[in-house]
Amino acid sequence: MDKSSGVGVLDKAVRVLGALEAGPASLAQLVTATGLSRPTAHRLAVALEHHRLVSRDLRGRFVLGERHAEWAAAAGEDRLVAVAGPLLGALRDATGESAQLYRRHGDHRVCIAVAERLHGLRDTVPVGASMTMNAGSAAQVLLAWDDPERLSVELVGARFDAAALSGVRRRGWAHSSGEREAGVASVSAPVRGPSGRVLAAVSVSGPAERFGRHPGRRHADAVLATAAAFTAALAPQN
């Protein structure tokens, strides 16, 4: 089926943006993903960057720009955030721990929603907090299903390796203890969009002494159930 709009330059620009939905991309990776010539891919990416639809990460790779989030917020159509409150609240109540939702933005992951533990010692992560992709179970989830060619670069300096991410893909969830911050443990699972692409990571986190030696055994089932609920909420409505 022909998906062309009849406006060639627009179709090509959308191909560039679509390729960046999967994560950061070098110019060579953009060329491979879009099938465009190198000069055309570069020209379009730079033009989109001018309009803040594309930006660059710390390694100079192209990433989706801030304009997309601004448009989503203005339209009130950020479905992830819209459904997050009750789902994270239920996860917090089921586990007794703070629950968060993270979305990737270039070299960082950003907390876009949170349900804090109501009593006792908390692992406070405010909405808007930006963390590197080098440590933590949410970072593992957001990277585990990434393109292998990108991973070879993204794992440089990370507190986990390709073998750990292979385990995440096999289990469907990630856990960490003291990886992002000493004394803090977490368990995370992927939230997927209608196409199956990983859009976000849902997590519970708290003091490592409360999570025990095997955080996943304690909380993986609840986190996976919440991730599935997010994914279901993002499915097209009949």
From TrEMBL:
InterPro entries: GAF-like_dom_sf, HTH_MetabolicPath_Reg, Tscrpt_reg_IclR_C, Tscrpt_reg_IclR_N, WH-like_DNA-bd_sf, WH_DNA-bd_sf. Keywords: DNA-binding, Transcription, Transcription regulation. GO terms for molecular function: DNA binding; DNA-binding transcription factor activity. Signal peptide: none annotated. Gene3D superfamilies: 3.30.450.40, Winged helix-like DNA-binding domain superfamily/Winged helix DNA-binding domain. GO terms for biological process: negative regulation of DNA-templated transcription. Residues 67-236 form the IclR-ED domain. This is Transcriptional regulator IclR.
